[in-house]
TrEMBL record:
Subunit description: Homohexamer.
NCBIfam families xref list: PRK09414.1 (NF006929)
Record keywords: Oxidoreductase
Pfam families: ELFV_dehydrog (PF00208), ELFV_dehydrog_N (PF02812)
Family of the protein in this entry: Belongs to the Glu/Leu/Phe/Val dehydrogenases family.
Name of the protein described by the UniProt record: Glutamate dehydrogenase
Source species of the chain: Dactylosporangium darangshiense
Gene3D superfamilies xrefs: Glutamate Dehydrogenase, chain A, domain 3, Leucine Dehydrogenase, chain A, domain 1, NAD(P)-binding Rossmann-like Domain
């Protein structure tokens, strides 16, 4: 804590991982001898830079850009960029740290990193977003490369932003290096199912958790928070598997629709019109918009938090438990506060941490890199099959590792230990670097 003052989210993420990997350290004294813990908690490189840009009225703005290249033991740094006013070093480091273990869990050759800016794209015109992205990439490009560091999207960074970032990278370097960014448009090197992958993947993971106890999504009442990229495709997959998502949200409140969220309407609002969730009820008058309240007050059997960190407080967890929730699957990164995780454990609610459950996004990114490297493109069906197999595999390994360590059903321990072991073994093999 004294080494990284004021980085609350980073401390929270490190504490959670260290709490669960202690038994692995007992089994492997060689990790302690090589100071793996000290090294794994220290990013390999951290870049902070100025991003000046001009808005449509000619006013100059200065934002701060970040890229934390956390660990490259398993492959090039890989992880998204987040554009949101709350972004500061502590958030980028927590996300980068989580990313290291998540990427290891996918079994694919990718290291971990994360970046972003405190820029707020909300309410900005396309041209303003483009100018910001160009300025951001004008510094970042020198640190990137398909074998070095490969960013993707996250909160506030979707297909539009990736397009502008890729265009500027190409222009500055004079290289058509498709594998330098993932989440690209389908027309220029993007991969099928990347857009859907995080949401679909989280629901595939939940399906495996249900299957492990002889259950399924059929007829299940589900709540998904957020209404961005992860939330929309989580809702789509739940509906395909026979569940009903009755509520979703944005930072202004939530909508409750007992007939099931109308996905075409939601996509139109969020992907095309970039509107607020409140406007959902204008076309679905039987639905209600509840401003300023937490979506977790809506009773459900399965909860898929897909908005942001620490969005489920201890009080929200109690409300979910009272409402009959049996499974919580993190679509977002660290959406569940430590007190809420403890409450779920005590109440016997099965809980899947984001680093396992939302790994589908980065796994599909690794598949995009694979297609770019071989100048190939796969069909939607084949790409979805690959994603599905990866999510099943992650589930089964978390499950098996939890059993191996005497904590059956504890997906947090299973995910942390399995991811940690993979990174630690590679670091040992590479010597003291
Ligand atoms: P988007 O920007 O597409 O959507 C974010 C959604 O969350 C929006 O509905 C937004 O509402 C809401 N939200 C954001 N911040 C807050 C807040 N402080 N309070 C309440 N609601 C908030 O982002 P993504 O869907 O891509 O990402 C969501 C989560 O999933 C993040 O934790 C991200 O790190 C994680 N994730 C994303 C992956 C991906 O592939 N995209 C991969 C793995 C994890 P509003 O518009 O009002 O801000």
């Amino acid at each position: 804590v004294h080494r990284n003052p004021g980085e609350g989210e980073f401390h929270q993420a490190v504490r959670e991982v260290l709490d669960s990997v202690a038994p692995a350290l007992d089994k492997h004294p060689e990790y302690a001898d090589a100071k793996i813990i000290e090294r794994i908690c220290e990013p390999e490189r951290q870049i902070i830079f100025r991003v000046p840009w001009e808005d449509d009225s000619g006013e100059v703005h200065i934002n701060r850009g970040f890229r934390v290249e956390f660990n490259s033991a398993l492959g090039p740094y890989k992880g998204g960029l987040r554009f949101h006013p709350s972004v500061y070093l502590g958030i980028v480091k927590f996300l980068g740290f989580e990313q290291v273990f998540k990427n290891a869990l996918t079994g694919m050759p990718i290291g971990g990193g994360k970046g972003g800016s405190d820029f707020d794209p909300k309410g900005r015109s396309d041209r303003e977003v483009m100018r910001f992205c160009q300025s951001f990439m004008t510094e970042l490009y020198r640190h990137l490369g398909e074998h070095t560091d490969v960013p993707a999207g996250d909160i506030g960074v979707g297909a539009r932003e990736i397009g502008y970032l890729f265009g500027q990278y190409k222009r500055i370097t004079n290289r058509y290096e498709s594998g330098v960014l993932t989440g690209k448009g389908l027309g220029y090197g993007g991969a099928q199912v990347r857009r859907e992958a995080t949401g679909y993947g989280a629901v595939f993971f939940a399906e495996e958790m249900l299957r492990a106890v002889g259950d399924s999504f059929d007829g299940k009442r589900v709540v998904v928070s957020g209404s961005g990229n992860v939330a929309i495709y989580a809702i789509e997959k739940v509906h395909q598997l026979g569940g009903v998502v009755v509520a979703c949200s944005d930072s202004s409140g939530y909508v409750l629709d007992d007939k099931g969220i109308d996905l075409d309407l939601l996509k139109d609002l969020k992907e095309v019109r970039r509107a607020r969730i409140a406007s959902y009820v204008a076309t679905r008058p039987h639905a209600t918009f509840v401003p300023g309240r937490s979506v977790w007050e809506v009773p459900c059997e399965v909860a898929v938090p897909s908005a942001t960190q620490n969005e489920i407080s201890a009080a929200d967890a109690d409300a979910l438990i009272q409402g009959g929730c049996k499974i919580v699957v993190e679509g977002a990164n660290m959406p569940t506060s430590p007190a809420a995780i403890r409450a779920f454990e005590q109440a016997g609610v099965r809980f899947a941490p984001g680093k396992a459950a939302n790994a589908g996004g980065v796994a599909a990114s690794a598949l995009e890199m694979q297609q770019n490297a071989s100048r190939d493109s796969w069909t939607f069906e084949y790409s979805e099959q690959r994603l599905h197999a990866i999510m099943r595999d992650i589930h089964d390994r978390c499950h098996a590792t939890a059993e191996e360590y005497g904590v059956p059903g504890n997906y947090v321990a299973g995910a942390n230990i399995d991811g940690f072991r993979r990174v630690a073994e590679a670091m040992l093999a590479h010597g003291l670097i």
